[in-house]
Design goal:
Layout (H helix, E strand, L loop, with lengths): L3 H16 L4 H42 L7 E3 L2 E3 L1 H6 L5 H22 L5 H15 L13 E3 L5 E3 L1
Antiparallel strand pairs: 1-2, 3-4
Helix pairs in contact: 1-4, 1-5, 2-4, 2-5
Length: 159
């Protein structure tokens, strides 16, 4: 069984690669993109109701610890960060960064615990993929490479 440290390391690598030095509003935008990519990947296996309950829990705890995040809202496709992005310029970057990091690590941890870590490799890969996209390295997450599609469990399968 993996521990939160592996999830933390994955999120830290994403932040170092994709969000390092980004102003607060851009950091929020990058977080929304990364979180929603994780949502899409997990949705294949868990469905909207289960995923929604998990996100509600994660957001509840995150807002308790980081009140600056209270404007985040769950939607059918993930998290909406528009209100936070609009306010981000008036908030210290480190406050936003710590809170967004907490959400990602907590989300990955809860999903990992719920699924006995079966989704963890795919979710970590998705977060890494988003970081590569930000760096201009590969196609957008919503576009599959030719000859590759997702199986029922969300794993990539050659076609």
């Amino acid at each position: 069984m993996r521990d939160a440290n592996e999830h933390s390391a994955c999120v830290d690598a994403w932040m170092d690669r994709a969000a390092q030095g980004a102003p607060p509003d851009r950091l929020v935008q990058l977080f929304e993109r990364a979180f929603n990519a994780l949502w899409r990947r997990a949705h294949v296996t868990l469905g909207e109701v289960t995923l929604g309950a998990i996100v509600d829990r994660v957001l509840y705890y995150a807002c308790e610890r980081y009140p600056v995040l209270s404007s985040l809202r769950m939607e059918s496709a993930g998290i909406c960060c528009v209100a936070l992005q609009e306010r981000a310029g008036g908030v210290r970057r480190d406050q936003i960064e710590e809170g967004l990091r907490f959400i990602l690590v907590e989300f990955l941890t809860v999903l990992g615990n719920l699924t006995a870590e079966i989704l963890t490799p795919a979710l970590h890969a998705e977060l890494s993929k988003v970081a590569q996209e930000e760096a201009g390295g590969i196609e957008r997450a919503s576009e599959s490479a030719p000859g590759i599609s997702e199986g029922e469990d969300g794993e990539e399968v050659e076609t």
